[in-house]
Amino acid sequence: MAEGGGSGGSGRGPPCPGAASAFRRWEQLRRRAATPWARGLLAVAAGLGLLYAVLRVPVRLRDGLAAATMFLSTLTPKFYFALTVTSSFISGLIFVFEWWHFRKYGTSFIEQVSVSHLRPLIGGAENSPPAPAAFSAGENETSRQNMPECKVWRNPLNLFRGAEYSRYMWVTGKEPLTYYDMNLSAQDHQTFFTCDTDVLRPSDTVMQKAWRERSPQARIKAAYQALELNNDCATAYVLLAEEEATTIVDAEKYFKQALKAGEMIYRKSQNCHSQSPQHEAQLRRDTNVLVYVKRRLAMCARKLGRIREAVKMMRDLMKEFPLLSMLNIHENLLEALLELQAYADVQAVLAKYDDISLPKSAAICYTAALLKARAVSERFSPETASKRGLSTAEINAVEAIHRAVEFNPHVPKYLLEMKSLVLPPEHILKRGDSEAVAYAFFHLQHWKRIEGALNLLHCTWEGTFRMIPYPLEKGHLFYPYPSCTETADRELLPTFHEVSVYPQKELPFFIHFTAGLCSFSAMLALLTHQFPELMVTFVKAMIVLMIPFLMFSEGFRKPVLRVLWPVSAPSVLASS
């Protein structure tokens, strides 16, 4: 009972004699292993094990190289010729595809696949630690405020679909508008010409569906249905003027009918717009319709040669609706005043709209440069300027050109006719190629009219790029040039137009690599076809010369050379 109680009280019995002796031997061994000579002995043993592994690998490598050399010695010149031709053909296909992909999309296909698909599989996306949510949101908000977005704008000088775009397609067989551009126009029409109260009027309900139709014939048919329900449906006349009229005269007739109906509806909406939010929305819609119709009527007058009438209509429209400056009606006014050669009026418009708080455009920047160039271009000569230096007026003109080129570097090539023009799209990207096409399409004649203006532009526009830091991490007078313009311009401009890219992108590495590989393989194939025996001997000699560099021990080199010597060396010596 006493032993049992003692055992139960302490929870532990007396130690076993065998276990105690084993424990003492383990302690002695641990103390001996802690001595310096024992550590040295363990290091020697580890080194011997590693040396055995190192010596074992060359033996296996020797057998593999011997088998590979025996296989290569049995190959004929026809095999080497077929191998080089196949390699050249495959690398050539890859090169052609890479070049086509770069020309079409501006990126390397191999690099894009590597970044998009292979990097997540390797775990590249997981290695970077995620930033905190609050910091990330604040950083994104700051970047959105500091960096300009690639926002697409409605082209203030867009052409008429039926009277101009469709006629171009009938003559050339090419579609001047892209699906993306037309889809943006359909969204604009639904925003400007529809409201929540359209369901109360059958004609507006039909037009609400008409703006969503993809087919022009379906839209025109719906417009006639709306006119059958209500002969004063202004939006139906707008659609017919834009798409069914085949001449500017016919379009103007439809717009005059739309103006008559739109003014009547606008006056009704003004009388009851304060009754409910729905009536306010209807007033906004009717205001948009009225402004759109008056602007297009002014553009019709401009195209038909009644320029002073067009100028008056635009000025009246800007006075009547001063809050609609976002529609950029002043750009239509600038172009009409330039046609009248009323340069003092043009300067007055620029003084009002060329403000730091307003978004710039190519029309504003290049028109300001044109006016300053007009003062000196007639007497400007590069030779004379290089001798006597630039005068104050010439310096101002050159600085204005540099400012315009920095805002949109694509315009000068169209003004100098270094690139061919196409019909401008219905939407443009500011600072992009689409804006340059739209500006040059309407303003090239104004630059040609002023003697020496294009010569001054030709002599000075490239100097802008020496003032802009590269790689465009910051701008000189404007924000850094956005990197997203090329993608948006490719969506806006037709496929047969070669999109201008700024800055010019360097060819990707894989295009250089595949081109070099294709050329090298083709050269080897040609040499193998012309000198088969010599090329086979050359390949075998290269193998013999390269093998010693692959060996990292003297004991490994001799057995391998003994294996390779009977196979390769006699043939090399015999041929030489």
From TrEMBL:
GO cellular component: membrane
UniProt KW keywords: Membrane, Transmembrane, Transmembrane helix
Pfam families: ST7
Encoding gene (name): ST7L
Membrane-topology descriptor: Multi-pass membrane protein
UniProt main location, coarse: membrane
Coiled coil: none
Keyword Protein biosynthesis on entry: no
Protein name, entry field: Suppressor of tumorigenicity 7 protein-like
Keyword Membrane on entry: yes
Compartments, as annotated in UniProt: Membrane
Top-level taxon of the source organism: Eukaryota
Family: Belongs to the ST7 family.
CDD domains reported for this sequence: ST7
PANTHER family (alphabetical): SUPPRESSION OF TUMORIGENICITY 7, SUPPRESSOR OF TUMORIGENICITY 7 PROTEIN-LIKE
